[in-house]
Write a structure and sequence with these properties.
The chain has 512 residues and is an alpha+beta fold. Helices cover 31% and strands 22% of the residues.
Length: 512
């Protein structure tokens, strides 16, 4: 070969070199294409993910938690009943026989049995525990069938009970069983929990003033299901949203949820944003028992028509929300004399949350345009729940409701729920609406339920006990390296962790 090459002229030698180069490059190209078809980038176990939160963990216990931070962390540590059962059977429409999976254990290695499920429900039903789930589980009788089986006995058929079962979080009897229900909030296990979820408590750090700065979880090796890819899940806590955004821009955290849409422009680090639709909505609820002027349906209708929902959504959420209820009506359709001649003045209770305060201020301006004076009473959300809502001491209240099932409106509109712990904030009562809500709960046929629901919504809309405003979208910000996050519809913000086992931050190339 060498002699042949030596016999080439300079021109022929250059041509030969070019030909060989093209051949080699072509071979490399086609080899790379062939290899690319045989390998793929896949998630790999390892790494950590740091999520930022504005606020503090208080009770990481799913049956007494009342704030979003607690619920988020608890959703990673505790399992809902739906994850723990192998099957359930419905007996005669009112009895549910549930069977747990075999060999379930808590993160400390203790067995998880039917006794834990029964203990959890009895604790929820104990008024001394002050559980937010209290109302949902009233009147349910539990019966121990075996170590793995429990029978739930209802007074009446309830077609949505399966949803309640699925979402019931289970806590360990061997941890909380000897603590009086009234003292549950005093237990150290509310910050150092023992659960059965994909992650378990590792440690937390706090400042001398008690402010918790970081809360770390690691994979629960006793978890019965698929183990997560991410080895460490760390929550870092900040005073407010502006501090969260700054921390993200400094790469102190890898993601956070609930971003105010108007602050997207403040993000300087490369990022992904998931805009996720959520159930539930915010509304202004009228208490006609406190202010007699609200008994006049014409007044309520005029107030409703004066609210421009589209403008509120654009100004407050930069368009990242959906209108609730009927579309906005133009103020030109109003008979303004209905309002102006009365010289009306109302008080509106508003939770101390930025987007709700901004909403209330816009509505105040809109109502002033039709001669109504609106006084805003801004209060801490916890005080509103524990004091104002408990006593129903308000003329109007701007608040959110979130039915666990969009077809079951009983807790929010049935006349039996007018007073605490019921959630009928409008103190609403209509016999026809009550009858439909009761029938919906016992109707097996989905098509028939939908027809009844449509009639129910029409009755409530016509009675106008509240002004539905909007349903904000949930904005989740993360680094570009986060994989496995799904942006499916959410009922609660903590549901974003339902597929946390599929989240990953590290990858590797593997042969197919």
């Amino acid at each position: 070969m060498a002699k042949v090459i030596d016999s080439f002229t300079r021109f022929e030698r250059n041509i030969f070199i070019v030909a060989i180069s093209v051949f080699l490059l072509s071979s490399l190209f086609w080899s790379a294409l062939a290899l690319q078809e045989k390998i793929e980038l896949t998630p790999k176990k390892g790494g950590q993910y740091r999520e930022g939160k504005a606020g503090q963990p208080i009770f990481i216990n799913p049956i007494i938690s009342s704030n979003e931070t607690d619920r988020d962390i608890a959703s990673l540590i505790y399992s809902p009943l739906s994850d723990l059962i192998s099957d359930y059977q419905i007996e005669e429409g009112t009895n549910y026989l549930v069977k747990l999976k075999q060999n379930l254990v808590w993160s400390d290695g203790q067995p998880l049995t039917s006794d834990d499920v029964i203990f959890t429900l009895k604790t929820i039903e104990d008024s001394d525990a002050r559980s937010p789930l209290f109302q949902t589980w009233q009147g349910i009788v539990t019966e121990r069938v075996s170590e793995l089986q429990i029978r739930f006995i209802l007074r009446n058929p309830y077609v949505f009970f399966g949803d309640n079962l699925s979402n019931l979080p289970i806590i360990p009897q061997h941890i909380f069983g000897k603590i009086p229900a009234a003292n549950l909030r005093l237990s150290n296990y509310n910050l150092e929990p023992v659960g059965s979820g994909p992650y378990k408590y590792d440690r937390f750090t706090k400042k001398k003033d008690g402010f918790i700065t970081q809360y770390q979880l690691i994979i629960n090796e006793n978890y019965f299901g698929k183990k997560p890819y991410i080895e460490k899940f760390v929550f870092k806590f900040y005073e407010n949203e502006d501090d969260l955004i700054s921390a993200f821009n400094r790469r102190e955290i890898d993601g956070f949820g609930g971003l105010n849409p108007v602050k997207i422009k403040n993000l300087s680090l490369n990022h992904n944003i998931k805009s996720i639709a959520m159930s539930g909505y915010y509304a202004i609820f009228f208490n006609q028992n406190i202010n007699s002027n609200l008994k006049d349906k014409n007044v309520r209708r005029a107030l409703s028509q004066a609210v421009d929902k589209k403008q509120i959504i654009q100004k407050v959420f930069n368009g990242e929300a959906m209108e609730a209820g009927e579309p906005s009506e133009a103020t030109s359709t109003l008979d303004l004399t209905v309002i102006r001649d009365k010289k009306l003045e109302f008080n509106l209770v508003v939770p101390q949350i930025d987007f709700l305060i901004n909403t209330a201020e816009i509505i105040k301006e809109e109502w002033s345009g039709i001669g109504v004076n609106l006084n805003l009473i801004v209060l801490n959300p916890d005080d509103i729940i524990s004091q104002v809502i408990r006593s129903r001491d308000y003329e109007m209240i701007l608040f959110g409701i979130n039915p666990a099932n969009e077809e079951d409106l009983f807790s929010f509109w049935h006349s039996s729920q007018k007073f605490y712990p019921g959630l009928n904030l409008a103190i609403y009562g209509n016999p026809n609406a009550d009858k439909l809500m009761e029938e919906i709960r016992q109707t097996d046929d989905p098509a028939e339920r939908q027809l009844k629901l449509k009639n129910l919504e029409s009755i409530i809309a016509d009675d106008l006990p509240a002004i539905p405003l909007y349903s904000p979208k949930y904005l989740y910000v993360s680094i570009n390296d986060l994989g496995g996050f799904t942006d499916k519809f959410l009922t609660t913000a903590s549901e974003r962790f339902q597929n946390v086992k599929d989240w990953y931050v590290e990858t590797s190339w593997v042969l197919r």
